[in-house]
Each structure stands twice: as C-alpha cells, then as structure tokens.
Specification:
The chain contains seven helices and no strands. The protein is mainly alpha-helical.
C-alpha cells in the first residue's frame, strides 16, 4: 500500500499535492441525483432567472421542498401513481431517501426559491 502511494506521488506530484491539502481546495457536494441525464440538464442552466422560464420541476425539486422523509415518500408515491416517474426511478428515489435522507437531494427549497435565484 505504501509503495503505491509513493509511486502515485512520483507519477502525479501535483494531483498528490492537491489531495493532501486542507479543505481550501475542496468542493462540497450538497446533493445527489441518481439519474445522470436529469442532473446534467438541471446543472446546465444559465446564470439568470430566465433559466426558469418554462421550467418543469422534477421529482427531486419536489423532494427538496419536503421537511422530512415521510413527506418525501408521499411525493414519490404520488408521482409514481400519476405516472410522472417510473417504478424503477421511484424505487431508486426511495432507496436514496432511506439510506441518505431527504437532504441528500440538496438543500431545502423555500417557497420563494425561484424568485430569489439569479
């Protein structure tokens, strides 16, 4: 194991240095999306409020408005019942809720979230 670390440092000195620094070079991950394509679409918006024109919230957007796991599970059940999410996706959402909690989807979205975001 120690030999691998030494070799890694020799091969990639800058990366090894960055990995060993304190929190100054780290980025916090505040949410997790299990569907990569949806995550990419949500992350690719521009910096203006206009990015919410014609915006349709997805299951994660609704879950982020919940205060607790029980509320989030009700949302997932409702969306699945209406056919707005597939059974497979609903199962993945429930699994993440139980394993990581409601905040694993991101910070809580308050009532005026879309009017405040720039």
């Amino acid at each position: 194991m120690e030999f691998e670390k030494k070799r890694f440092k020799q091969m990639y000195p800058n990366l090894a240095g960055e990995m060993s620094t304190t929190s100054e070079n780290r980025v916090a991950i505040s949410s997790v999306r299990s569907d990569v394509s949806l995550g990419e679409v949500r992350a690719s918006g521009s910096g203006s409020v206009k990015r919410f024109d014609n915006y349709m919230p997805d299951a994660v957007d609704f879950i982020r408005r919940c205060d607790n796991e029980k509320q989030a599970l009700e949302i997932v059940d409702f969306l699945e019942k209406r056919g707005e999410v597939s059974g497979e996706y609903a199962l993945r959402l429930r699994k993440q809720l139980r394993a990581k909690g409601v905040r694993s989807f991101g910070s809580k979205k308050e009532d005026d979230y879309y009017s405040r975001v720039e």
